[in-house]
Amino acid sequence: MTSPAPHAGPERTLVNWTTLIYALHAFSIATGILGAATVIGAFLTGWPSIIAVILNYVKRGDARGTWLESHFRWQIRTFWFGALWVVLCGLLVVLTLGVGVIVVWIPLAIVTIWFVYRIARGWIRLGARMPMYT
Fold it and tell me: Rg of the chain over CA atoms, in angstroms?
């Protein structure tokens, strides 16, 4: 019987944390799809995604220098770049004195699809034990 690799334990723990974070984000997306909230609203303000981002920051130091570091970066960037796009859409509406509300749904729909893509793509690559290319 062979013994496990010396880093199998810590890496396995980090894989579990990364999986949990993807699951929390996916739960937020599902809440937005199935509930009264929008996907964007659930993703950016729902407790699962807020907890996920906090966990990203708490655990990313443990992932530094491993292939999982790219997943932590991917997850953090997904949240914050999504927030940036939503703020920019809000500014469009405000700066156009409400006229922008006619077209703002288009970039918001794109951000919604982007959230789903980023979480699905990251989770698939994690399952394949592949780093993210960021």
Answer: 17
CB neighbour class for 67 (10 Å; exposed up to 12, middle 13-18, buried from 19) = middle
Are the C-beta atoms of 18 and 71 separated by less than 8 Å? yes
Distance (Å, whole) CA 57 – CA 18 = 12
Residue 17 belongs to what domain range? 8-127
Asked whether residue 3 is assigned to any structural domain, the reply reads: no
- The pLDDT tens digits of the residues spanning 1-23 come to 443 454 568 899 999 999 999 99
Contact 93, 101 (CB under 8 A): yes
Q: Each residue of 85-125: pLDDT tens digit?
A: 999 999 998 999 888 889 999 999 999 999 999 999 999 99
